[in-house]
Amino acid sequence: MRISDLAKAGGVGVETVRFYQRKGLLQVPRGDAPGGRHYGPDDLRRLRYVKQAQTAGFTLAEIAELIDLDRTDDRPRARDMARERIAALDAQIAQLTAARASLSKLAADCGKGGEGPCPILAAFA
Fold it and tell me: From CA 105, how far away is CA 120, in angstroms rounded?
């Protein structure tokens, strides 16, 4: 498949595919095929792997490490990376939960009416 087909099948744009290639996450196929460069099922699998890892919150550098770990089957390091990512996600969840609670209180206080500025608007001043 051509790069546009790969991008479409992977749910990304062509520039994203090129960006991943520049970062070393996807290989650049040789251009000696009739009609230029062509991508195969392995390229699509790798593209989907990168997107899934991003969805899990891994950075591109971490994804590159995961790809290397896949070659060596270094389970302890992969497990450590997953645990680190889980801890980071837990911290984000706690932060978002606190922000939600704070904003909910401000919205309730604003809904009560009263004198002075809206608590929501005053909170960000």
Answer: 9
Q: Give this prediction's pTM.
A: 0.76
How far is 48 from 25, CA to CA, in rounded Å?
11
- Mean pLDDT (the chain) is 92
For residue 93, give Cα distances in angstroms to 16, 53, 85, 88, 108. 28, 18, 12, 9, 22
Instruction: Please tell me the number of Cα atoms within 13 Å of 75 on its side-chain side.
Output: 0
Nearest residue to 7 (alpha-carbon basis) of 26, 23, 24, 22: 26
- The whole-angstrom separation of Cα 117 and Cα 14 is 49
